[in-house]
Fold D-methionine transport system ATP-binding protein.
Amino acid sequence: MSGTTSAMVRFSDVTKTFVGDNGPFNAVDGVTLDITRGEIFGVIGYSGAGKSTLVRLINALELTSGGTIEVDGRSITGLPEGALREVRAGIGMIFQQFNLLSSRSIAGNISYPLEVARWPKAKRKARVAELLDFVGISDKAKQRPSQLSGGQKQRVGIARALATNPGILLADEATSALDPETTQDVLALLKKVNAELGITVVVITHEMDVVKTICDRVAVMERGKVVELGDVYSVFANPRHPATRRFVEATIKDRPSKDALERLRRRHPHHLITVSVHEDGTSGGRITDVLSANSVQGSIIFGGISEVTERPFGSLTWELVGTPADIARSIETLKGYTRVVDLGTAEHPLADPDAYAPGTETDRPDAQSPSAPLPLDRLAAENAAQIGGIDPGNPNPLGGFRKGNR
Ligand SMILES: Nc1ncnc2c1ncn2[C@@H]1O[C@H](COP(=O)(O)OP(=O)(O)OP(=O)(O)O)[C@@H](O)[C@H]1O
């Protein structure tokens, strides 16, 4: 990769049109955004929002219907297949279902793209050993994929995707099939890929937890459009779009839902407030100081503070006991530091404008029609793409090596 511009990927008014059961529709609809060189960029959205399609446009597994895409300063729009193979060689990809070749050993899987790129045997062997060590599974070299756990399989997928030194790694729901602990391990590995190898990582996910753990910036997609874009902490601290708010609330779980608030009011009939705790706002200690300075007794009855991009984030719901005037003064003072939602009392309740009311997928106003089943040729194309520089139209990546492109 040339390293000449700060944008590793540039989408300019990009549209991708598919023909569905009800006629043509835009799976990606007028997207303009830059993915900065060296960052971990998240794309989040509900099923069918267009995330995979957007990311598959980067390595030309899908071709644009409108607009232009630049990868590493080079427009890939309208390039002939031969030139696209060159672009793909600089992009690694990993998938939810790993897409490993079951007939090959782990070392054989990782070596495969190097064979295709016609690396000499000794160089291949050294590179595979280096990659196995990097992803932490050197002891698994001779085993078959079926002998590995999901997390280990994804490590193989990552090693294979890195084999030919790509500048970009695309991770399509790479942790969605893993348990929470293994997810954290794989996310840590993706962070290491980014930090130690300087690779730009694009992560597609439907879990804000993934975004919160590793991404620098995030785009929220809904119905093919990017509805919110920004650095992760700001998006968490100030989500503007309803879809973003739902993702944040479902992940942080720091505020009582409507139902939980009703239960809290029954147990705690006095004045309730929810106070945001941000790095640049207030802390639990400062809240206590403000309350005691105003002769108000406070106790925490709900809340949670976790880390977003390694910085504190969350909120605490307090029950306040004191005179109405002292409580009002406390709330005014706290508002000078941070966001305070006044929930009133059991007798005179005030609604939380941000309350999260969990619903089903189909309850959501933005729910999309279910994604089409993965066509077989798409699976073959993914297999081909992740080993770098191969024609995604080849339905049988093991059916004979194509000529390398370097
Ligand atoms: N090859 C295709 N032909 C027709 N429609 C398609 C094709 N690929 C995707 N779609 C449709 O485009 C829309 C966006 O799909 P896409 O896979 O990009 O969404 P997504 O946000 O990644 O969803 P998921 O998280 O379920 O994978 C969906 O309605 C899907 O059914």
Observations:
- Residues 7-249+371-386 form a domain with the Rossmann fold fold (CATH 3.40.50.300).
- The pocket of adenosine-5'-triphosphate is lined by residues 18, 20, 27, 45, 47-53, 206, 368-369, 371-372 (CB under 6 Å).
- Residues 358-376, 387-406 have pLDDT under 50 and may be disordered.
- The radius of gyration is 25 Å.
